[in-house]
Amino acid sequence: MKRLTAALLGALLAGCGFHLRTAREFSLPPSLMTLRVRMPSSGLKYPGLVLVMRRALADRGVQVVDHRKAPTLVLAGETLTPMIVTINSNGGASAYLLDYAVTYSVVGPHGRILVASRTVRVQREYSFDPRYVLAMAREEAYLKRRMRRAAARQIVWGLAAYKRPATAVAPAAKPKAQGHAPKA
Description:
The protein is α/β, with parallel strands linked by helices. The protein has helices spanning 2-15, 23-26, 48-59, 133-160; strands spanning 34-38, 63-65, 72-87, 93-107, 113-127. 32% of the residues lie in helices and 29% in strands. A 5-stranded mixed sheet has the order 2-1-3-4-5, covered by helices on one side. β3 and β4 form a beta hairpin. The longest helix is centred in the C-terminal third of the chain and has 28 residues, at 133-160.
């Protein structure tokens, strides 16, 4: 019975055109295979998000460079907003939803915007027990690292979908009128 169900599900998915992405379909366009990564809002040369982003890009075969001749992935900022989801009987928070957001864009070497500003979001929920404050702080830090990596993957997916804008084509010259001029 399980085999029949699996075969039926496989046939339905194949029939609707669904297929998993292959590495070839997921690769970044050639114009983005060399990138510079910056986060100007941070005073650090390599803040945590930049390090994670550089690693995610390198894992996809992107050459990450520091020179200005390459397109630049600009990480405009990251925010982590905890929101209370559940309140216990004492009126304290017992569950939080962490909302992590990163805004990014890609700027060409001459300042032309290649990818307009976009924001990716990752959310995770976690329980909070006031008896284990240190453990809860460690869990929140762990979730933040995981959310940062998930956001970096989403950014790479967004870059993989980038289509280079078509260059403007000059309008075709009007054909010269053929025929003879009227005789006077």
